[in-house]
Amino acid sequence: MANYTAADIKALRERTGAGMMDVKKALDEANGDAEKAIEIIRVKGLKGATKREGRSAAEGLIAATVADGAGVMIEINCETDFVAKADKFINLGNTVLEVAAASKAADVDALLAAEYNGRTLGDHVTEEGALMGEKVVVRRVARVEGAFVDAYLHKTSKDLPAQVGVLMAVDSDSAEAQTAAHDVAVHIAAMAPTYLSRDEVAEDVVANERRIAEETARAEGKPEQAMQKIIEGRLTGFFKEIVLEDQGFAKDPKVSVGKVLEQAGTKGVKFARFRVGS
């Protein structure tokens, strides 16, 4: 007869994030000793890490924080939504975020190499993934600075942690600028722009879009005298799709995001947007 209860299984699952069968097997092997069971789960998990390398880690969470005029955001992935919503995984995401903020790591490699409790963060993530029995990956990190930075996290499901995250930096910290920055961050979460301003769009991208617009207009038999106006109009439409400042503001599409920021006495400096798995 097993010398542990259903409550013991539940408690150990919450502590490790491991699956029910893995927890039961570990408790059986440990004769009900929870600490020994955790050790067994960790060892078996680390041994299985190589096997998990090829598996897809498409679930996960976004976490963000702002301090001293700098916003930091991370994406950390796992394999299943069960683990994504587990306290242990959420706590790991918070740890990764704390290290990212403290280390000011510019990329994932630097972040994983950062020190955490006497070892690298990468080693800690690997061990935590072993406990959960899943492939866990730190996928992205972003750092955005400005006079004011708003961090917005959006849940696509009430049962899961945030799946979309945005950092929006502006060049003023007035009350009006802060409100506008937040509203624009919410807009970015929904509308997914690629660039802040037209200046950020590479010349070859613009040239290619202009070529496509011209070829399309000619194929449609548009009159030559109207050709340039048609091309510029379609190019403007292209910018409205991908450039934040040119997009119609989600709350009032008749007004551009650039105009919203201007009316608040500020200007966008930089933004970052993450969506889990994309």
From TrEMBL:
Location within or outside the cell: Cytoplasm
Primary residence: cytoplasm
GO MF term set: translation elongation factor activity
CDD domains: UBA_EF-Ts
Annotated keywords: Cytoplasm, Elongation factor, Protein biosynthesis
Region of interest (Involved in Mg(2+) ion dislocation from EF-Tu), ranges: 80-83
Cross-referenced Pfam families: EF_TS
Domain Translation elongation factor EFTs/EF1B dimerisation stretches: 71-277
Highest rank taxon of the organism: Bacteria
Record-linked PANTHER family: ELONGATION FACTOR TS (PTHR11741), ELONGATION FACTOR TS, MITOCHONDRIAL (PTHR11741:SF0)
Summary of the function given for this chain in its UniProt record: Associates with the EF-Tu.GDP complex and induces the exchange of GDP to GTP. It remains bound to the aminoacyl-tRNA.EF-Tu.GTP complex up to the GTP hydrolysis stage on the ribosome.
NCBIfam families, A to Z: tsf
Similarity comment: Belongs to the EF-Ts family.
HAMAP family, per database record: EF_Ts (MF_00050)
Protein name (Swiss-Prot/TrEMBL): Elongation factor Ts
Organism name: Citricoccus muralis
Lineage: Bacteria, Bacillati, Actinomycetota, Actinomycetes, Micrococcales
Gene: tsf
